[in-house]
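Lab meeting, item 3. Inverse folding demo.
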């Protein structure tokens, strides 16, 4: 199975303020179909506990910081995102959730598909069954 990995984005340093950007198929390995963002997260809340059968995604902490926890059957990894010029690429088929949001954290999620509820696996036991049976 493919693994989640941090990707560093271009950073154009400028005295007037820095600039970063993402182009699909150049900086991230999929075509961008959808973007959404998570914000105003109350302290201690957890978002995004699920896996996607098809969707690939790239998550950036545009402001503030949070952790992305990635799991599969055997491993668990924690990625701390706290800079707007790098992000986490997550291939399809991995369980993930976001936690430890700082005040004013803004999580940008760039996705490879439209929103399809049928693509979600929202229960971790179902996810383990999916890995065993359906993949
Ligand atoms: P969801 O992905 O379930 O968020 P979380 O896993 O953090 O709880 O999305 C929450 C709600 O928002 C859910 O009812 C579906 C809706 N939603 C859309 O309509 N379009 C989207 O692109 C996304 C990401 C969510």
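The presenter then showed the designed sequence:
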């Amino acid at each position: 199975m493919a693994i989640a990995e941090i990707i560093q984005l271009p950073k154009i340093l400028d005295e007037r303020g820095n600039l970063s950007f993402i182009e699909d198929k150049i900086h991230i390995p999929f075509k961008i179909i959808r973007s959404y963002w998570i914000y105003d997260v109350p302290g201690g809340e957890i978002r995004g506990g699920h896996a996607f059968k098809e969707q690939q995604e790239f998550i950036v902490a545009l402001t503030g910081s949070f952790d992305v926890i990635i799991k599969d059957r055997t491993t668990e990894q924690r990625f701390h995102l706290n800079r707007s010029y790098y992000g986490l690429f997550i291939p399809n088929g991995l369980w993930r959730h976001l936690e430890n949001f700082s005040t004013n954290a803004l999580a940008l999620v760039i996705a490879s598909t439209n929103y399809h509820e049928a693509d979600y696996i929202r229960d971790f036991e179902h996810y383990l069954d999916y890995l065993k049976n359906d993949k």
